[in-house]
Design brief:
The structure is a homodimer. By secondary structure, chain A is mainly α. Helix content of chain A is about 70%, strand content about 0%. At the A-B interface, helix 6, helix 7, helix 8 and helix 9 of A face helix 6, helix 7, helix 8 and helix 9 of B. The first copy, chain A, binds a DNA duplex through helix 3.
Chain lengths: ~210, ~210
DNA sequence: CCTACAATTATGCAAGCGTATAATTGAGTG
DNA sequence: CACTCAATTATACGCTTGCATAATTGTAGG
């Protein structure tokens, strides 16, 4: 009979389910904005029943927080990984870092939607705000370390200002590329980014990077 | 008697009502994100009944579009006005433009929330997307004109790249300042912006601007 | 093999959403 | 002053939302 067949399922560990729900949440937000991430939609995408979400997350706000935390963690570790395969020379390391931030997969239309979807929560929820703050400052400190390693002499105040400026350039160009991807030709943004960061720091970064084919 | 008193009202022109509804929409989005801009909330803030919204806007999506258009118009004309009171010297004009973009009232926590709230609509609705595109390119062209007026010689391709880069710096710094206003001291960002744009263009813009008290 | 318990599903509810439609009322016109 | 019609309000409907609670079922341990 086709009436009232109860859904069959497998028992899973808490870790697996939580991660599936978080992934589903992020997918939905990037696809259709925060409004699309309803409890029911998340449940369906995670192949689970709405009730189970309440079992693992006290409230939907809780799930949202966890999703943001997870997103930030991913971005942070991704940033670190770029440097693992980078050359040892300070200028080349910085150049590789900048270029990687302005090319796919970092430049990705869906990434901006995801990022924008959380903006409002960042401003309202103190917990989320703190995660945002820590991530942002961590990224900037990493950039500042790369700049400090360059063969120049610069005091702390100048390093700070340069790091803020370079971070601004990267963020801004990243934004432009995500928002209007068809407005730029391939690698144009990365080249502009390298030239600009180089100009801010008073050096040539363009020759440090091989044009990847 | 306190039963069933019908709301008293004044008849208004179509212009007045539409503008009030648009303003209410923008206020609500900036305060509480796109989710807070419900038809009922908009109506209350505009001191009007939900039904009237439907009378002036065929659908809520229509109102959203009109609100975005209005927002972009305001930003565009505000940008133009800065240049009206600016000096005549090209470098000073550019410097004034850059500095103004990185200080209040352009730098405003609520502005970013507003901007972010529309991001998703920009990506999905072709009409809104076109408005966004036109506004963005208009701003960049204005910047490019300011750069082109500088006493240098530069070909078209270089001008384009420089305009993109400068726009990126301004956007990125604007974003940083809006997102974490307490992370910077007063005028720090404007100074960094002037220094960075100057570095990209190979000139000194800092001396072009008086520090406003 | 069965028993017990946590993992999971199913059902239901109150509130809020956008929208449709009908009833009122303010204000200009003769 | 009455008439008229657009501007405005009021009411209602169907749908979705987050959340609570009760009923099941997969699975590990004796």
């Amino acid at each position: 009979m086709m009436t009232g067949e109860r859904k069959s399922y497998r028992r899973e560990g808490q870790e697996v389910r939580r991660e599936a729900m978080i992934a589903a949440t992020l997918d939905l937000i990037s696809e259709g904005g925060i409004a699309a991430a309803t409890v029911r939609a998340i449940a369906e995408k995670a192949d689970v029943t709405p009730g189970l979400i309440r079992h693992y997350f006290k409230t939907k706000e809780d799930l949202t927080r966890a999703a943001y935390q997870s997103l930030m963690d991913k971005m942070t570790t991704a940033n670190g990984r770029v440097l693992d395969t980078a050359p040892a020379a300070p200028a080349a390391r910085l150049a590789a870092f900048v270029a990687a931030s302005l090319r796919p997969p970092v430049v990705d239309p869906s990434a901006m939607g995801l990022w924008a979807g959380f903006i409002h929560q960042v401003q309202q929820d103190p917990l989320i705000r703190e995660v945002h703050r820590a991530t942002y400052l961590g990224y900037r400190d990493l950039l500042q370390d790369l700049i400090a390693a360059l063969p120049r002499q610069a005091d702390a105040a100048r390093l700070r200002a340069e790091a803020i400026a370079c971070n601004g350039v990267i963020d801004g160009l990243w934004l432009e590329a995500c928002a209007l991807p068809e407005a730029f030709v391939k690698d144009e943004l990365a080249e502009i980014g390298l030239r600009s960061v180089g100009a801010i720091l008073g050096m040539d970064l363009l020759t440090e990077v091989e044009t990847k084919t």
